[in-house]
Amino acid sequence: xxxxxYITSSCIISNHTVYKNGTVLFSEQAATDVPGFLNxxxxxxxxxxxxxxxMDNLNKLGWLASEILLSGGFDKTKYRPxxxxxxxxNRNSSLDTDQRYLKSVADxxxxxxxxxxxxxxxxxxxxxxxxxxxxxxxxxAEDFDADFITNxxxxxxxxxxxxxxxxxxxELLGKEYKAALFLIEKVKTGDxxxxxxxxxxxxxxxxxxxxxxxxxxxxxxTAMGNNVAECLSSFERGEAGMADITHLDTVxxxxxxxxxxxxxxxxxxxxxxxxxxxxxxxxLSLTAAKEALKDAAIPRIETxxxxxxxxxxVGGMDKSEDFFIDFITDNSKGKLKNVxxxxxxxxxxxxxxxxxIKDYMTTISTACSSSANAIxxxxxxxxxxxxxxxxxxxxxxxxxxxxxxFNTLMILDKEFCKPFDENRRGLNLGEGAGYVxxxxxxxxxxxxxxxxxxxxxxxxxxxxxxxxxxxxxGTGSYLAMKGALNKAGLTTSDIDYINLHGTGTPNNDNxxxxxxxxxxxxxxxxxxxxxxFTGHTLGASGGIEAVFSVLAxxxxxxxxxxxxxxxxxxxxxxxxxxxxxxxxxxxxxxxSFGFGGNCSSLIFSKI
Amino acid sequence: MKIYIRSAACISPQKTLHQDDLLxxxxxxxxxxxxxxxxxxxxxxDPKLTRRMSxxxxxxxxxxxxxxxxxxxxxxGAVITGTAYGCLEDTxxxxxxxxxxxxxxxxxxxxxQSTHNTVAAQIALMLKCHSYNNTFVHKGISFESAxxxxxxxxxxxxxxxxxxxxxxxMTDASYTILKRLGxxxxxxxxxxxxxxxxxxxxxxxxxxxxxxxxxxxxxVNLAELTGMQNFYKPKGIDDIEARIVAFLKTxxxxxxxxxxxxxxxxxxxxxxxxxxxxxNTIFNNCAIANYKHLCGEYPTSSAFAFWxxxxxxxxxxxxxxxxxxxxxxxxxxxxxxxxxxLNLYHSLMLxxxx
Lengths: 607, 354
Hints:
The structure holds two protein chains of two kinds. Helix content of chain A is 35%, strand content 20%.
């Protein structure tokens, strides 16, 4: 009969560190070699066990792990000796000692080495020490097989062959070694956990728990508003930012609607005290990043390590277009100033200099998922202790290059776009910037007001289907959303709102919808595409929509999907069409998918 | 945790794609623009696909495939690229047509392939690799950013066999513009005597280099990536020295433990002044090698240096063509790569025997 079994103790020895039940018990990084380290561990045990000195390295490792595993609490007198078993495994059997033994053969074979040329001596040494007499076995496998161990040991316990069992992995070859032992019992004690494949794997992997990353500030500029307050107010009024082209000098003006930021370059430059000759992308980036940092108002920020991770897709293309008009007629012509900041990285560098950020900066460009990737790369920089704070997001200004590029692909709607509508015809391009200020837990605790929420999940997967089109199955989107849920430790029913990528092209909405259906069917959370307000802001969209997602949690909002009329025939769900306030929103998923199959999803969660 | 360089591959203005002969007979150029020597890509790529691919895409994807082949890995756990300029050729093509044809009747191909993530995307597409895929585009630390991403993925246990590369191409337009910006020497000479020119300006280059990172020990591993660090706008040479010493110290090393320093000297007097000062201070007891006379200066050239360091460690031999000071017969166990880009972005990478 299948019963519930528990892991009542665990011990990991690797990287010159001993872990008991997940916490470090002993570490000796100065130890020069493996035997030296093992002897140092032995000395901490404060016992005198003469047999230890006779053992080979593999046996010392396994025996020490078992000593630590059974120490502090395990009462073996509860069991009969024949009720306690030892089931171990490793990759290289006793190869480490086999090789030493072979070397010794030339000078007269060493009997003390010979006796350790069998892996099961490890289980033997543990049984001798503890007088265990239950079933013991030693399996050889390429890698630790949690599935096999849980099934095999589970069966021994369920069938009452054993009442308790020590199981796990003891591997040692030269400088590489690892022991991971588990004590499995039928009775739950203290902080025992369920004996499942997942738990065993998690303990075996022994990863440092990653610290949480919080959102302390937000900043945004789009066609629907020049800052957070204006954007929220446009959402409430249901006012989209699309209109005729006014800033771009293009033949498409008056024919293709776009979502331009309403401020001119002169106004943006004035507001930021910048030279008007800067790329518009830089000006938009600086505006939103400044708002985010001001909003975060981090105390004593000068004492902390700050990074800037920004994204864009075409760098200073708006200026390069001016340069090229003269350059292609004569290569000695064209103002160099206009092409000097062509690189994507230049946008980031100029803004970082303005913000006084120098500890870390980089730029990401993965087409339309760029700034979603920037945000979670920023979070990982904090989790890996590279910096304490990261301003992360992205910016893109409208350019003739992208407008014409998308136009050649015939995916621009001549009317205002209708994401997730049966009769959608394409996207409207937009421009803007959106940034969040990510902080470590330590910084979060110093804030003068509560952080907005945390970034709980993220994932980047590739559709690997086509350079520009999404696969009909929405493979990349599906993997991105699923991976983000896994990372956050959430299930689909936890998600209260999805901010869709929802460009309004037939292809994207179909692929994304299919992926949403695969993952969420039949219980769909409210969802909408805020691109029906902002247009598709390309490299900025992930950042802008992250800001909207954070605000959705903070204010309990669900944004409407404008102009939606007819549900797509493929699906049984449709986007939310009304602006909703006062909702209970704990977890928001934000999708960003791009050319090159780059698909990313972020999940923001209430603290 | 240790991070190993399981394999590496490089396409550059030198014959670097097949590594049985590491830079022993360097190719000489008498020009200020070094072009990559391209292999017969049909060995790596479907000719139907390459027909439409631009120079940088072919270089990048071809190098990535060779790197996987060298590492005997068919499916990487992540693909991460660094490129400062992205797909310049396609960008310029589309931009030029757009202006010439007054925004009418434009073919989409150049636009489609102009996005900076095209190389990483094409690798994913060819391998049907759904894993983590990212592209960094930050000037002279694009490759270093990609490398840090790879290191973090391994640290987090998120992926193994992380394919990391740096790619940049030089086009006629970018060469002309960078020349007008004063980056290159006014009079061409032999690249092999680049460091004797005693003048300002460098030579332009291009290339692609990929490495496969893993946290698993293996007999095929080339080297260990012991550490890396970037810093921005140091306050002066003292600050640079202090940062290098501090960086080594975080890895329990001092300059005495470094057997070879690979510097980013590029033949420009102004650019090289810092390296020359260090050669008289903290690097004064070290063998020193350079590499930009072989591949030219470009923002992701540090990927070339990284590829070179991994191979030097594996071969146990420093090619005479790169050695500036010190004995030829040393077998470096620990190599420090120190490069700076326009004196703004400085990068340190430590490569050692595994």
